[in-house]
Each structure stands twice: as C-alpha cells, then as structure tokens.
UniProtKB/TrEMBL annotation:
It is found in: Cytoplasm. Its cofactor is Mg(2+). An essential GTPase which binds GTP, GDP and possibly (p)ppGpp with moderate affinity, with high nucleotide exchange rates and a fairly low GTP hydrolysis rate. Plays a role in control of the cell cycle, stress response, ribosome biogenesis and in those bacteria that undergo differentiation, in morphogenesis control. Its EC number is 3.6.5.-. Coiled coil: none annotated. This is GTPase Obg. The gene is obg. Keywords: Cytoplasm, GTP-binding, Hydrolase, Magnesium, Metal-binding, Nucleotide-binding. One of its GO terms (molecular function) is ribosome binding. Monomer. GTP binds at residues 165-172, 190-194, 212-215, 282-285, 310-312. It is an enzyme of class 3 (hydrolase). It comes from Mariprofundus aestuarium.
C-alpha cells in the first residue's frame, strides 16, 4: 500500500428515475385512474471515515466515482428502485474540498459520513397529480440530475504528538520503543519515507497517538525535501517533540540542528511555530558528562523545555512520556470545554429566538 495523502476525484451521483404516466386497465373498469409510479432516487456518493484506512490510495487509483441512476417508475403504481450508492471508506483526518479550495468536510471521527454528491430525486408519476378537477392527468415528472463535480481530498493525519527532527535523530527508534508502531530503523537518513503513526498506552489504559514524519531537511517547507509534504500531518497535534541528535553523528552541532528545524517550522507558518514544543536530546548513552553539560549550557538561553533521553536504552523516556501526556490531556480538556461552551451558546441562542417568537 502506498501512502497517498492528496487526490483529485471526479464524483457523479446518479440521476433520479423518471416518473411514469400510465392508466389502470382492468376488465369491467372502463376508465381506470392514473397509476404511474415515481422514479427511484439516484445513488449518492458517500465518504465514510474509517480507522481501518490510512491512505487515500483507493481513490487515487479509481479517480472517478459514479453512482447508479434511479430506475424509472412503472405502471400499476410501481415505484422505480433507488440507484445504488457508492460508499468509500477514507482515513480519519480526510478533508474534502471543492474546486475553489473551499473545505466541504473534515472527517475527523470514525464512522463520520459525508455525502459528497447527492443523487437526484426521482420524478413523480402521474398518479400523484390526480385532482378532483383533473382525474386523468398525463403529466409526470422527469428525474432530477444527480450532483457532480471535481473534489480534492487531503489527508491530515490525526495525531496528538508530532515528532520532528533531522534525518537520523532517532525518531523511528523512539516511536518503536514507546508505541505499537514498527518503523524501519537504519543508520542512514530517510529510512522513513511516509508518516508513521504509533499508539502509546499509558498506565490509565488510555494514551495518545504519535506521528513520526520523515526527516526534515533545510528548504523542506519550500518543497525541496521530503518533509514539506508531510508537515501538514502534524498541524493538528497538541505538542511537537523536536528531536535532536545529541551525539551529533552527522557532524552538525546541536544548535545547527535546532535552528534548521526551527527554520522549517517557521517557513511552514504560524500553526506549527505556535505549538507547544519539547526539545528532546536523544542518544544520551553516547554522551560524556562534560558533553552533556556543554549542551545544557548552550541551550539554557533558548527558553525551551528540554529532555535528555536515549531511545535505545530507554533512559529518560518514561519521564518524557508523562510530560507529553500532561500536555495532551490539557489540550483535550481545552477542546472539550470549547465544545461544551459552543453547545451552551447554541442553546442560549435558540432560547432567545424562541422567546422573541413568543413575544
Ligand atoms: N547510540 C544511540 N543511537 C541511537 C539512539 N536512537 C537512535 N539511534 C541510532 O540512530 C540511527 C538513526 O535512527 P532512526 O530512529 O532511524 O532515526 P530517524 O530520525 O527516524 O531517521 P529518519 O527515518 O531518517 O528520519 C540508527 O542507527 C539508530 O540505531 C540512541 O538513543 N542512542
């Protein structure tokens, strides 16, 4: 399966079936009334968010989603059948946009549905148009056209924590240690070529999801490296873990590594820069005490919360996880409060409206 996070698809819902114009013909009933049935509704095209999916590959391959037309109505008051819907599962975090880039839907919960193209209504048969003055109408309706258009889908993974750092900082090693994800780990850069999600379980039985995005390199936000395309996947996280190779195996000082990533996050825009960030110095097992002290002195002025860990030996990892979890819970509580406030606001508005109607 390839990781596809952007696709363009053509969607076409089914047209409604035509209504039927027909008259009852029975023995001994000389003038049977109208009995033309309605046409069936055209099929919808529906996206459903599913936790079983993590790529838009299926849509990338299909390119077109066309639902069936509704069947025409028939005599003897028989209605036409509905056209079959096309139902496509998409990953949680899929955003649907129209041709002008307006967001139509943001599918953020398992099972959430979006009718991306609605099938046309079936036309009414002549039986519906009989009145006391016109008992034998011949008129029946055509079916309505189904909606159609081009839609752009963009996947922004839903993770609580985003791992960022230069290639080889040890992001995959940390993810493998703390979560159920099993990323490839190698001592050459860019072993990670697609974002990888891992679920971390905490003592309370709950936990959080971490996204490891491919190693950023300078200029990534301008689309030069691999990272740019993937930065969007950490836009919705509660906290960023900025990983730095404290052993400086690739020859870059810790300051250089930090500044390079800062530059990339700044280049991407406010959403990432303003996120809470923990600076994590990895590979501490390979550091001498005086090297660690030197790093501590160098970063003291940066004002970032820092952690020293070894993703290989596990040193410092537990403490880090608790701190991350704190941040995640704080954000969840804030979002829950915002949602509850909105509900209250809505209820107040409805009450006010009702009051004004009564007066
Ligand atoms: N000594 C030491 N080596 C580590 C530690 N963590 C990772 N490494 C090594 O660093 C190398 C790179 O680790 P990865 O986890 O693949 O790094 P990454 O940041 O995921 O790299 P990309 O996938 O390229 O983005 C591997 O050889 C790891 O074994 C650590 O805590 N101590």
């Amino acid at each position: 399966m390839r990781f596809i996070d952007e696709v363009k698809v053509e969607v076409r819902a089914g047209n409604g079936g035509k209504g039927c114009s027909s008259f009852r013909r029975e023995k001994y009933v000389p003038r049977g009334g109208p009995d033309g049935g309605d046409g069936g509704r055209g099929g919808h095209v529906i996206f459903v968010a599913s936790e079983r999916k993590n790529t838009l590959q299926e849509l990338y391959l299909r390119k077109r989603l066309i639902a069936k037309n509704g069947q025409s109505g028939m005599g003897s008051d028989c209605h036409g059948k509905y056209g079959a819907d096309v139902v496509i599962e998409v990953p949680i975090g899929t955003i649907v946009k129209d041709e002008d880039g307006h967001i139509l839907a943001d599918l953020s919960e398992d099972g959430e549905e979006f009718f991306v193209a609605r099938g046309g209504a079936g036309g009414m048969g002549n039986a519906r148009f009989a009145t006391s003055t016109n008992r034998a109408p011949r008129y029946c309706q055509p079916g309505m056209e189904g909606e159609q258009g081009i839609r752009y889908l963009e996947l922004k993974l839903m993770a609580d924590v985003g791992l960022v750092g230069l290639p080889n900082a040890g992001k995959s090693t940390l993810l493998a240690r703390i979560s159920n994800a099993r990323p490839k780990i190698a001592d050459y850069p860019f072993t990670t070529i697609k974002p990888m999600l891992g679920q971390v379980f905490m003592d309370d039985g709950d936990g959080f999801v971490v996204a490891d995005i491919p190693g950023l390199i300078e200029g990534a936000h301008e689309g030069k490296g691999l990272g740019h395309r993937f930065l969007r996947h950490i836009e919705r996280t509660a906290v960023l873990l900025h990983m730095v190779d404290a052993a400086c195996e690739d020859g870059k000082s810790v300051r250089e590594q930090i500044e390079e990533i800062n530059g990339e996050l700044e280049g991407y825009g406010k959403t990432l820069v303003e996120k809470p960030r923990l600076l994590v110095f990895n590979k501490c097992d390979a550091l001498l005490d005086e090297e660690r002290t030197a790093i501590e002195e160098e970063i003291a002025t940066m004002g970032l919360e820092t952690y020293f860990i070894s993703a290989v030996s596990g040193e410092g990892v537990k403490q880090l996880l608790h701190r991350i979890y704190d941040q995640v819970l704080q954000l969840r509580a804030k979002l829950a409060k915002e949602a509850a406030d909105k509900e209250v606001e809505k209820a107040d508005m409805i009450e006010e409206l009702n009051d004004s109607f009564e007066k």
